[in-house]
């Protein structure tokens, strides 16, 4: 445990307040993010777990594709998904357009590849209507072009997810 982390944890133990616990969690996450960035800068392979929505999926081979993902912590990133187009593959549904999934990524020198993905949500009401799908695709393209790359994009992710939810629910 780093000194800042230990100090925040001890403060929480002494006070028992939820605010102090949240401060400790923030310090811990910041330390983990810094360690991951340092490892990536040094060229080490790092495992990253993040929730993201698929903005684009471009086929590379018969079964592989390159995904454009919007993440809260890293903004817009590209990730190579090996076997994502296999008919019975575990990555098939979580890597489709408009899928909100929890991704486990390998990061090596600012290149990402998908190791595992667990589907969190899919906007079926949007996929079933051509007009809604075209609007959702436009929103994804707009987000892919305007959201930051390599830095926090939590507000962009929240706005896109809320917009897709409203489209999905006919609101």
Radius of gyration: 18 Å
Tertiary shape: globular
The N- and C-terminal alpha carbons lie at a distance of: 47 Å
H/E order of the elements? HHEEEEEHHH
The description of the largest β-sheet is: 5 strands, mixed, barrel
What's the helical proportion of residues? 40-55%
Arithmetic mean pLDDT: 85
Number of H- or I-type helical stretches: 5
Structural class per helix/strand content?
A: alpha+beta
Low-confidence stretches: none
Q: Percent of residues in beta strands?
A: 25-35%
Strand order of the largest sheet: 1-2-3-5-4
User: Quick one: how many beta strands?
Assistant: 5
Provide a short characterization of the protein structure.
Helices cover 43% and strands 29% of the residues. With 171 residues, it is α+β, with helices and mostly antiparallel strands. A five-stranded mixed barrel has the order 1-2-3-5-4.
